[in-house]
Amino acid sequence: MQTANPILSRIDRDAAQASSSGPGFAYEEGRAAVASAQAPAPAAPGPATDAGYYAGVQIPAPAGSRVTFPDVMVKSAILFVIAVVTAFMGWQATEFFPALAGVLVLVSMLATLGLGLANAFKRVVSPPLIVIYAVFSGFMLGAVSYWYNQLAIANEYPGLVLQAVLATFTTFGVMLLLFGTGIVKVNGRFMRVMIAAMGAYFVIGLASLVAALFGVGGGWGFYGVGTFGLLLCIFGVGLAAFSLMLDFEAIKQGIAMGLPERESWRMSFGLMVTLVWLYLEFLRMFAIIASGRD
User: What are the start-end ranges of the E strands in 71-197?
Assistant: First the structure.
């Protein structure tokens, strides 16, 4: 499965590790099972160390317990509802306790980052941990959204948060349409370009953070430097948007491989991570536009 999303690339890495260790009876049987996506893995000497894995290769689940598209949609809806509820809580907490606003934002961001990494690199899917991530990420989005909203009001630019929400959902719909109709093909070349672009954007983001500490771009770093800053914002939005296509392709291939139903949590989690990223990119872009108005 090809994707730049670390959550959804878990299976791909396991298969690659098994391949590098050299072929063997158990590995060949596991690879054949993945290719055919049919019956459960054949019996072999020694128990599997993790449910759903044998010799480092993801084995398709028995018929009736395989992940389906509705499974992914249901799990995604559950995480979305949790995030919306806790976002409202984060907004209210930041509004009613302005003295603690900075602390609330920082703590929620660190918790979201830590839980995100834990889920991304966890070999076996943990639904409770994913739900906890949705709780903290929602609280973080609510707190950050309130902060951006106050900034927009100060610049006489009301409705910034609503614009970011609508832009995120519109972009999601457009990307899904482009993927579903095959207008944009997610192939090896697309994957390589995305990985290179993400690497470059990560480096630029770090450099921009350092520059912001020295007051560059009015505290926005490179993002606040005139036309270049706006173009950088648009690039970030586009990168996050096209990352959704990588997630759609990973989900499609995971379903085709006959992965266990439990993997629907990992797929939904990966999709949510990308949507959070996209929303934050829109928030920053609209905030910079608001700050730069005459």
Answer: none
- Please tell me whether residues 164 and 203 are part of one structural domain: yes
Domain that holds residue 34: 10-58
Contacts of 227 by beta carbon, 8 Å cutoff, 6+ apart? none
pTM of this structure: 0.78
Cβ contact 30:57 at 8 Å:
yes
| Count of CB atoms situated within 10 Å of the CB of 104 | 21
Give the three-state DSSP class for 218: helix
Partners of residue 58 on adjacent β-strands? 53
Given a cut of 60, whether residue 274 has pLDDT beyond it is yes
* CA pair distance 169, 158, nearest whole angstrom: 19
Shared domain for 26 and 158, answered yes or no, is: no
Residue 116 reports pLDDT greater than 50: yes
260 SS3 class = strand
3-state secondary structure of 185: coil
Which residue reads 């005139």 in tokens?
Answer: 226
Tell whether 4 is covered by a domain.
Answer: no
Mean pLDDT for 1-12 is 51
